[in-house]
Amino acid sequence: MRFVAMGERFQSLQYCFRLGATTIGSIVIETCKAIWKELAPLHMKLPTREKWKEVLNTRNIVSEVHREVIEIGIQRTLFEEWYTTGVRGLTWELEEDRGSWWSHVEMGPPDAILGVTEAYKRDTNPKKINLGVGAYRDDNGKPFVLPSVKKAEDKLRAKGLDHEYAPIGGSAEFCNLSINLALGDGSEIVKNGLNATLQGISGTGSLRIGGAFLAQFFPGNKEVYLPTPSWGNHTPIFKHSGLAVKQYRYYDPKTCGFDFQGSLQDIAKIPERSIILFHACAHNPTGVDPNPEQWAEISHVVKQKNLFPFFDMAYQGFASGDVAKDAFAVRHFVKEGHEMVLTQSYAKNMGLYGERAGAFSLIAGSKDEAQKTMSQLKIIVRPMYSNPPIHGARIVTEILSDAALKAELTDVKGMADRIISVRAKLRDNLKKEGSQKDWSHITNQIGMFCFTGLNPQQAEKVTKDFSVYLTKDGRISMAGVTSKNVEYLAHAIHEVTNSISNQNDKNIK
């Protein structure tokens, strides 16, 4: 709806409103009030609602709403002050309601994990536990900054560094240190220049670089096969990159462990020249990893099928506390001659969650190929985010390039050991509760996350009855378990699994 104030002084003054015709009658008075305020330079008094009603006669306006133009003359007796300024009438021209540019956009679903934390925050139960958080917490439930990180930051402050842009590929020293951390010092791959490594925006950004590169240049099937289940962000990252996403078996809900045979069978059925993603260690969300012998057999099948491995290594050092042990799968595949891509993140193993420090590497067949792929990776990065952030990369560089600080990186073992310890405490306390279930999978799994085996009904009940917050698939973050709440958590899990199991038994009978 367009408002036009006619008269000697307002011949070109118009106000446009995109309104449906059926709503005009109910809001015309409030509209007029708003318009009147726009005429403030004339210092005219705002008419009362009653006076507007008297002049506009809302009922008559509504009855004529389908006319193209609605005109109302100004009566001098009612609006002497306005009339004398030259205004002789008001006109509403009805226009087609085109709607907003974004009226078609629907509300998106909330993030499943962040939604858990939001619900936790609203809960007033003093015993509430947040097991959805994907960041390490100490035994008091507080964020933990590694001493080596603090010392590295002190060293950086003393240097008085600038804040200039990083190169498109990031810090060369950071990249070199990162690939050596993954493959081991003295790696022949690095010595021979067979890697193209650039700095990424932690794990997520590095995955996105890899997805975009493979979607554009991979000569095989533009399909990536993910383990079932996988990190929730993997699917949207690869789909947004332009790759088709498919799955292969990985987790066995019956044993809460690794479905080795099912995994091998599915991998053997994947079409040749396809992409297959592996979690290098501390599989998220299950905490279930293949053992070295199983990795060796997986590597053999992948080579037989001529598949292209994509390793996501977000937890090196955090899984077992040993960076070399956690890199076994990656190093074994390299040893077996696989060309592949690798993503790294320093969020978990250095606690640099908000610094977004990570790396993407491609292992090529020749130095020439590595150089060419590096040039194309930079072309992909330039319009994506141009340059990576520098502070987190500087912290990582200080730690990995300083022998003393690198030695202190064993702090990550303390974090890993705490997680391993609370796993054992949770299992033992479930036994103390009298649970007849086998909870050995809690300690057989590794890393930050644990697939408890709780079904959606049990997960919902433990939240409702005990204020224990977790995802519907039964995944819990072991970082949220402490020596202070582990007994309460065990009690809650036992009560829920026991009561629902008994109810199901009755239903079967």
UniProtKB/TrEMBL annotation:
Single Gene Ontology MF annotation: L-aspartate:2-oxoglutarate aminotransferase activity
Pfam families membership: Aminotran_1_2
Co-factor(s): pyridoxal 5'-phosphate
EC number: 2.6.1.1
Top enzyme class: transferase
SUPFAM superfamilies in alphabetical order: PLP-dependent transferases
Superkingdom of origin: Eukaryota
UniProt entry keywords in alphabetical sequence: Aminotransferase, Mitochondrion, Pyridoxal phosphate, Transferase
Membrane-spanning residues: none
Location in the cell: Mitochondrion matrix
PROSITE patterns: AA_TRANSFER_CLASS_1
Reactions the enzyme catalyzes: L-aspartate + 2-oxoglutarate = oxaloacetate + L-glutamate
A GO biological process held by the record: L-aspartate catabolic process
A GO CC term assigned to this protein in UniProt: mitochondrial matrix
Domain annotation Aminotransferase class I/classII large: ranges: 127-493
Protein family according to the UniProt entry: Belongs to the class-I pyridoxal-phosphate-dependent aminotransferase family.
Note: In eukaryotes there are cytoplasmic, mitochondrial and chloroplastic isozymes.
PANTHER family: ASPARTATE AMINOTRANSFERASE (PTHR11879), ASPARTATE AMINOTRANSFERASE, MITOCHONDRIAL (PTHR11879:SF22)
Subunit annotation: Homodimer.
NCBIfam families: PRK09257.1 (NF006719)
Name of the featured protein: Aspartate aminotransferase
